[in-house]
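ok posting inputs for the flavin-adenine dinucleotide job
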Amino acid sequence: MTVFDVAVIGCGPTGVTLANLLGQYGLTVLVLEREPEIYGLPRAIHFDGEVMRVFETAGLRSQVEAISRPGIKGMHFNNADGQTLLIRAGSASIGPHGCANNHYFHQPDLEGVLRQGLQRHRSVQWHTGHEVRSIEQGCDAVTLEVQPHSGQAYSVQARYVVGCDGARSLVRKVMGSLMLDLGLHQPWLVFDVRLKTEVPDLPDHTVQHCDPQRPMTYCNVTGKRRRWEIMLMPGDDPEHMVQPQTLWSLVSRWVTPAQADIERAAIYTFHSVIAQGWRRDRLMLAGDSAHQTPPFLGQGMCAGIRDAANLAWKLQAVIRGHAGEGLLDTYESERSPHVRAFIDLAVRLGDIIQTTDPQAARQRDEKFKSGGPEIFHLPAPRLGPGVWLGDCAPVAQVFPQPVLADGRLLDAALGPGFAVIGEPAVLAGVSQQTRERWQALQLLTWPATEPVLLAWLQQHGSRAVMLRPDRYIMGLAQASGDLDRLSNLLPQRSAQTV
Ligand SMILES: Cc1cc2nc3c(=O)[nH]c(=O)nc-3n(C[C@H](O)[C@H](O)[C@H](O)COP(=O)(O)OP(=O)(O)OC[C@H]3O[C@@H](n4cnc5c(N)ncnc54)[C@H](O)[C@@H]3O)c2cc1C
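and the output
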């Protein structure tokens, strides 16, 4: 029986991104997806600049740009009187990742582009309408029992299995990982429409209506698509809420049936949970199977894409025998605190948006109104403990992606592996052992002669910076000896192959 390097269970945004990244490394990958078609009910509508950079790494940036639009004005949190209390900043300019900071999209379009991307990789096989029914770990491989929609059940084996199988993950159950409850669980109605005519009064940016009578979110998705997310109040009957008459009455101040068609209406319960244990031997979790966040920051899918970027290079290093299996334990230790920072912020924003006590809402409004709208940016948390060395930021954060003098974006110039950007003298002064390690790993050395890179190093009081394949900063160096110390963290070719 063929043993795949990696089986990815679930071809949602996390699984399909991971498979694209693994395919670029030439690993043999099997993707199994239960549903025959792309899930037609969109959930995510926003992703950030770091996520666009991951799509760029996967070689799909221009295709993703073609089906998305940059978000310029950010997200406004308004009170019941329409006064803006808080703004998540937007920007018309290029952000630190070499693209816009925020992007809006229709989820089935994005998943279509990412699935098309898989066709570029001969080592990747993917099957839709194939449900994984059972999972058994052996010493050398994991055996999956798969039931296709039509046809006979069959078995397949893979060295590693990543459960990108969503909130009700089978892989998580088999691993026995429990979910830590972070406190927020609230049903919301999601109502998507397609405009038939221009409705000039509809804002072109996201608005959180923090109205204690009925909290709501309005979003301009892409093209003619608009969305309202509407909080269910005590006593609301879910069946009544999704009736067309109810839906139109809920949004009647903005749009009428003469101006738009209903695309869908569904009720979701927003959760805030994080798994305890993202890896058990050859099984791992990524995306919603590992964590779920209320969507007030538009970050649930983004977290899954970041999981994929973190895990892909580590799986490649272990499977190719460049690193021991212990490297895979840094996946949870790095990613879990990072995603937790986003969930905690989303829960705090949820407390602001979901206030239904009129007096508490008045107090909230007073607090914000005293200083005018408060502006905040998406956080850029540091990774938890793992493959990096350094006491403070920017170490363990993502390195920016400037445009170089020759017009290329930095990542295109650096390629897919580890890299060191530094003053030529510092690069030249490393030990013979470091040099050999760099050669073995095909680590790229990039003399920091470009003004933009020199300025970054100066700003951070350093003379060189070591970057991981996911472009997180592994460490800073002021001298060649610092690079020698950092290089001890690099995957070692001599590591035992698993
Ligand atoms: C209303 C709403 C709005 C949101 N807005 C945003 C937003 O703007 N931005 C953002 O970043 N996030 C947002 N999110 C969150 C985002 O939708 C999810 O985090 C994201 O879809 C998770 O992707 P995933 O691939 O991890 O899981 P899923 O999309 O759930 O995919 C899991 C896949 O696994 C398959 N599967 C499951 N079990 C098996 C099995 N046994 N065998 C084979 N296949 C299996 C399923 O069929 C499914 O296709 C929102 C969520 C909601 C509910």
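notes: The mean pLDDT is 95. The two ends are 19 Å apart (CA to CA).
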